[in-house]
Amino acid sequence: MYKYRAMKTILTLLFLTCSILQAQAQIQWQRCYGGAIEDQGNAIRTTYDGGYIITGYTGSNDGDVSGGHGGADGWVVKITATGAIEWQKCFGGSDADFLNDIRQTPDSGYIVVGATYSTDGDVVGNHGYNDMWVLKLSPIGALQWQKCLGGNGGENAYAVGLTNDGGYIVAGNTGSDNNGDVAANHGSGDEWIVKLTDTGSIAWAKCYGGRANDYPASVQQTFDGGYIVGGTSKSVDGDVTAHRGPNDNRNLWVIKITDTGRLEWERSLGHYSGFGSQGQLGGATIQTSDSGYVVAGATYSGGDDVTGYVGLADQNGNGWVVKLNKSGAKQWDRCVVLSAGTGIDAITQTADGGYFFAGRDNNSPFDAFALFGKLTRTGALDWVSRYGGASDSRYPPYGTRFNAVAITTDGNAIAAGYTDAIDGDVSGYHDHVDCWVVKFGEHSSVADVAQTNTITVSPNPARQIVNIKAAAIITRLSITNTLGQQVFTGNYNGSNAQIDVTALPIGMYFVKINDTETVRFLKE
To answer: Exposure string (b/e) for 33-70, b if CB count within 10 Å is 16 or more?
Structure first.
């Protein structure tokens, strides 16, 4: 019976791979960044000038990398719209330092978060072991200030967001025993959410979870001024009320908190197969344009919240996306699978209401590729494929993986992660493991979000008023940001419209006319 199930699963996976791989997003350009040691991109964001900012870590001090402090350093790389390096900076001390997320700030600088084990170099105020580390950079990458947050245990920061009051929200985890900056820890490891002012002072800090390990993957301020946090939980107690399986089974865990950190609701997502403890992992979460939420990760079994799982429980990973309404109730879910080990690490909403997602697809360490695809607004699989090449045989295999994805100014996508590939889609490989960035182009089934000749927006960039002119009569007009969140909508009856965008944060926006044509503009 087991052999029959295994053979049936393999044949199913092969069929899915052969049929889906026919649809693939075009690579416009790709770049390897790094040196002779390990280099990795953990986050990528579009910048106001149309370029990109990348953060991660590096062990190199040659090639594209200079200014290393020793060991692993946090690494920030600013690139142009075509991938040329404008500047790069290493941050850290003589021990290991890692950066996981970055956002451009209204002053055109950057807020960056990660973890530090160092007590020297750029690092001041480490509480002990590893601390959550927050850095504020100037527009050219100069360190303006840094903060070590934590206690006598271990802390990491995985995600950062900008807040409406000009400050920052940081999501990480803590293992400290209620000392230093940490209070009310539930157990061995809690999600730790820290609200900072614009100068890095703690406004408030709260622990969420239970007696087992709980850790976040993402944080974002919501339309109502609160915050949505997505991650993974093993706890069955404390703040976690509907966990599936025992403590060693992971669930995706989503929490909604107010602007002061009060827990409004929480939701465990997943299934316990009974065969092992892989469960679900990931939890990248964004708010959607309808005020709901989308959660992405991986699942190793089907049942309960998981529908459409392919494979043998606890042996085959499926990428998993779950759509929740604004109260946390499930609306739909989608399993994505190409081979025996598919997972989704990042997701973003597109201008047409669908979703770009990115992650990994691994048959084995020797057959490990990056994953990129798109879902429609209702969760149907539009297309998905994998990218990479053969691993460098001189080293233990790392494979290729995307850790992050972002919407680009042309409405397509850019993804960042790492690769050890020496051929295939990869060129310019330095050595060992490189940070790999891929700019994708159009796909025939993806709605075209290009500048059109029938709509004009002026001035562009804009500071206060934008004037919108169309060749046809405008009946409906909407504005969305790069996360797919609708920030303005209105009904009209004319070929011209004026919109006051003074209150919008700096960044890129999309104007849609009559639910058909889309044009982009920058708010400065």
So the answer is: bbbebbbbbbbbbbbbeebbbbbbbbbbbebbbeebbb
Model pLDDT for residues 168-222, shown as the tens digit of each residue? 999 999 999 889 999 999 988 999 999 999 999 999 999 999 999 999 999 999 9
Question: Which whole number is the average pLDDT over 70-81?
Answer: 96
| pLDDT at residue 144 is higher than 90 | yes
Domain residue spans in the chain? 8-440, 455-523
How many beta carbons lie within 10 A of that of residue 432, not counting itself? 19
Q: Which residues pair with 238 in a beta bridge?
A: none
Q: Is the pLDDT of residue 119 over 50?
A: yes
- Residue for token pair 């966990």: 243
**DSSP assignment letter at 54:** E
- Tell me what pLDDT residue 200 has: 98
DSSP result, 239-300:
T--S--S-TTS-EEEEEEE-TT--EEEEEEE----SS-S--EEEEEEEE-TTS-EEEEEEES
Question: For residues 186 and 215, what is the distance between their CA atoms, to the nearest angstrom?
Answer: 13
Res 460: pLDDT:
80
**pLDDT by residue (tens digit) across 378-418?**
999 998 999 999 999 999 999 999 999 999 998 999 999 99
Decide: 172 and 113 in contact? Cβ < 8 Å. Answer: yes
Contact, 156 vs 180, CB < 8 A?
Answer: no
Cα 231 from chain centroid (whole Å): 12
Topology of the domain comprising 455-523: Immunoglobulin-like (2.60.40)
Residue 255 bridge partners (DSSP) = 229, 266
CB 276 within 8 A of CB 242: no
CA 499 vs CA 48, 317, 348, 519: distances in Å: 20, 47, 26, 14
Please say whether the beta carbons of 40 and 72 come within 8 A: no
- Distance CA(361)–CA(340), nearest Å, equals 8
- Is residue 15 classed exposed, middle or buried when 0-12, 13-18 and 19+ CB atoms within 10 A define those classes? exposed
Q: What is the CATH number of domain 8-440?
A: 2.120.10.30
Q: CA-to-CA distance for 155 and 174, rounded, in angstroms?
A: 4
In angstroms, rounded to a whole number, what is the distance separating the alpha carbons of residues 281 and 270? 9
Percent of the chain's residues with pLDDT above 90:
71
Beta bridge partners of residue 470, listed in sequence order: 455
Check for a shared fold between 8-440 and 455-523.
Answer: no
- 126: three-class secondary structure by DSSP: coil
